Amino acid sequence: MLRIAVAASGNGSNFENLVHQSRQKKMPSTNIICLITDKQNAYALDRAKQLDIPHFLFIPNLFSNKQQYEQAVVQTLQEQRIDLLVLAGYMRIIGDTLLNAYPNNIINIHPSYLPAHPGKQGILDAFHAGQLSSGVTVHYVNEKIDGGEIILQEKISFQPQETIADWENKIHALEYQLYPQAINAINPFL
Length: 190
Ligand code: GRF
Fold this sequence. Notes:
Elements: E1 2-7, H1 13-23, E2 30-37, H2 43-51, E3 55-57, H3 66-79, E4 84-87, H4 96-101, E5 106-110, H5 122-129, E6 133-140, E7 150-157, H6 164-186
Parallel strand pairs: 1-2, 1-4, 2-3, 4-5
Antiparallel strand pairs: 5-6, 6-7
Helix pairs in contact: 1-2, 1-6
Bound molecules: 5-O-phosphono-beta-D-ribofuranosylamine.
């Protein structure tokens, strides 16, 4: 079994989807062990409670620096015997402490066809670029923002009349398919 922790700062719809996919054996040999969050008011926390998944809240301001904060996260991940850290809307840059503790075992999902439109507003930036296409990318996390090795990515086309809300809906729907597929692709237990 691949023991997974999901990190999320907000809504947590990808987190919830991964829990369902794992439980329905669409991600065989995986176990979503816990949720990690940095935000007390993250809706992902409510989802974790409803799904009966243990959750750990680390408030960055309560630590003296990023290293101490990440060290606390690493300690919990190790206590929980986590193999893979899955970022799903986790809005912090991963630092050396986490990267060194989990080399090549942290992955992220980004709502654009990287390397196009990295950063916090991937959907909006692609929408305003006016090219009527974007996508979703799952990649390993390294020290470059949205710059690690790509595991899986897929494009989506849009019609001129589609709104930003349409873009968001289609991109999220693709995320819910692609993240489980990417995890299956790298799961050493399959
Ligand atoms: C997703 O669009 C993901 O690609 C990006 O953050 C968003 C998280 O959404 N990294 P949710 O919290 O899973 O609903």
